[in-house]
């Protein structure tokens, strides 16, 4: 599909974008941290609380029925969003972090033992590192890493063959790096892992709302994402798990909702996905997320991806024309963000001064501390884009960066 879209007109759907910060029009370039929410998502939440609010799966009164229908419709919508085979492959979580922790706690507890290897990459977010380190401590498993080649944030694929040994039980990797903007070849890596019977997890926190995602085409066993990064509410996300593999996994937490029958000594659990969802869930979250997915797909994620890349390339080209700047991430096929350091200026100073110009950036290690250390830096400054951002905003950002350089050159 190649429709032409009036991107700046979409901005009207986002009430928050229409404001000034420190007397300057807000330029929101912290979308990798969280995205803004369109009116339709806000309205879906208000509608739910004003008309339908009730607990799900237990009442047989009208409001409970409405809530349950909307809650499960969101699950079906999520399956479609990821092209999963069935809604039963979608487990609600608080976000990407909890989704990965769920896999570590349940699949990991069942299938990993001492001496097994968990293969990760050196560009992972802490949420795809720490749960595996905790699991490795509990089980005696080891962690190995596909190395990064350098500032370009690319994986050294020449090392993959020797790393995929018979000891490896799981390959877990990020789809799009939040600190570099690299797009990893996840389908190729999943295919290689699958040939060896290795289970795969893709961290889709930065990809799900930015490009079309097809979990069957990627060929992963698990895929995790967060609703708040794709125009949905905070506190809701999902784990996709292939049915065959979910069936092998014990429950996550115990409590109401996830059981078939309970005795004083023994409990029989529901099948997936309900087995993994104990207690009253976040109900408004999936409903808001449903509205967000409808909103994104009305634009078309292939169009969003093209727009993201255009902005990132435009920003990257202008930043590379500056002196005394170190740029991170790939030149080609860059996701919608730029990551950089100005010589002799701390990333936090860049962010603080940019904020005075109305531009919201992020500075720090971006929860990728090991990667920062490997590249010999403490932090970078990052501008991350979404479809409601414009080239005119990138121009403001570049002007602000030039001002900051001038200020520090004095
Ligand atoms: N994985 C990646 C690649 C991420 O970018 C993030 C959040 C997470 C996992 C965790 O997602 P959560 O919703 O469970 O917190 N990334 C960022 C960021 O880049 N700045 O703030 C959060």
CATH superfamily of the largest domain: Type I PLP-dependent aspartate aminotransferase-like (Major domain)
The helix-and-strand class reads: alpha/beta
- The strand count comes to 17
Helix content: 25-40%
Q: What small molecules are bound in this structure?
A: ligand 7TS
Poorly predicted parts: none
CA gyration radius, whole angstroms: 22 Å
Describe, in short, the structure shown.
The protein has helices spanning 7-10, 39-52, 62-82, 96-111, 130-139, 160-163, 186-195, 215-218, 243-246, 284-299, 301-320, 347-356, 369-374, 391-409; strands spanning 20-21, 24-25, 27-28, 90-93, 117-121, 142-146, 168-174, 199-203, 222-226, 237-241, 259-262, 267-269, 325-328, 337-342, 359-360, 362-364, 380-384. The chain is α/β, with parallel strands linked by helices and 410 residues long. It folds into two domains: 7-30 and 301-409, Aspartate Aminotransferase, domain 1 (Alpha-Beta Complex); 42-297, 3-Layer(aba) Sandwich (Aspartate Aminotransferase, domain 2), CATH 3.40.640.
Q: What report would you give on this structure?
A:
The chain is of the alpha/beta class and 410 residues long. It has 14 helices and 17 strands. Helix 2 packs antiparallel against helix 10 (284-299) and helix 4 (96-111) packs parallel to helix 5 (130-139). Helix 7 (186-195) links the parallel strand 7 and strand 8. It folds into two domains: 7-30 and 301-409, Aspartate Aminotransferase, domain 1, CATH 3.90.1150.10; 42-297, Type I PLP-dependent aspartate aminotransferase-like (Major domain) (Aspartate Aminotransferase, domain 2, 3-Layer(aba) Sandwich). Helices cover 39% and strands 17% of the residues. The radius of gyration is 22 Å and the shape is globular. The site of ligand 7TS has 16 residues, from helix 4.
